[in-house]
Amino acid sequence: MAEAFKNMFNEQFLGRLTKTLKRVIDFDERKFVSQVMDAEWKNREFKQRCEHIATVLKSFLPPDYKKAIAKILELLSYETVASDDDTQFGLMLEYGWILDNFVEQYGLDDYQASIKAIEKITQFTSCEFSVRPFIIKYPDEMMKQMLAWSKHKHWGVRRVSSEGCRPRLPWAMALPELKKNPAPIIPILENLKNDPHFFVRKSVANNLNDIAKDNPKTVIELAKKWQGESENTDWVIKHGCRTLLKQGNPEVMELFGFGSAAKNISIEDFKILTPKVKVGKSLEISFKLVNNNKKKAKVRLEYGIYYQKANGTLSKKVHKISEKEYAENSITEIIRKHSFKVVTTRKFHPGLHQVSVIINGNEFEKNDFELIE
């Protein structure tokens, strides 16, 4: 089994952290580590560990926030930080999560000092979590700041201007007003849609995908407006419309050349090769995709799994197989496996499940299978 994500914060990591902190503050390293790895340490999850380390760190820094944040920013003046071979440039990502959390926890009442700190820290790591409480408390000021950051010379600052205001950012504080009305986000995305850095463009696409879940028309309008501007923007809107594509939204299907399922495309011999699937094993299906058209057909091919929920109802999740052209008058055999390996992000419930085949957003046959312990 893979190592738990939270376990990156271990004694070895704390040893590197204290070695780095020694450069800017005089403190008792053993006392710091013992307070961090207290009786509840093993029970804390990833984000709780970040918060706890930041809380302990505060007690070793000056009580005045401006002075404390100045000490933290001193860490960023070093070209390298403590690591196993002392050759790592900038801050390790784990360091950044802690500094980010420090600003999030203790800097909310000092807007100016915190904004300067975030702008600096996010050039070494990412501060998308810490900006969110500032967006809640100072919505107008903060969104103006995010817009200004979208033109910053450093790609990390430009990225946080998009990533920080994602309406549905995973693991993060909710931004209900931006879910309702994403209008303040759009000028930021306009500035970044063709950014030279891939991770900035990826953030724009993820932001669009978040917006699409609550305001699909906004994203469809942007996609139509941006399509064809460049290869970069074409990738951004395609990735940003992935949820709408999985939903089979007709406008989006048409936009990307899929349209509705052609009359002369059909599914034949749809079989469930494993009608009973043990948890930990895989479902296997096969079918034939028949294109009776006299020309090639562009097809987005997917399958839907209807998962059994705890209350006995079924919940559908769509999984992509391919996007490609199928030759005229062709028959293509498709075999697909779907794993039911136990993962932390989904709990499986034994019982009736279903699987379907989806072509260009249109669902074809749907058959039953059973998941067993």
Protein traits:
373 residues; alpha+beta; five-stranded mixed β-sheet; three-stranded antiparallel β-sheet; globular
Could you characterize the architecture of this molecule?
The chain is of the alpha+beta class and 373 residues long. The chain has helices spanning 11-21, 29-36, 46-59, 65-74, 93-106, 111-121, 131-137, 139-149, 155-163, 176-180, 186-192, 198-212, 216-226, 231-240, 242-246, 250-255; strands at residues 265-272, 276-278, 282-291, 297-308, 314-326, 330-339, 351-359, 362-372. The strands form 2 sheets. It has a 5-stranded mixed β-sheet with strand order 2-8-7-4-5, with no helix packed on it. The longest helix has 15 residues, at 198-212. It is globular. The model is unreliable at 79-91 (pLDDT under 50).
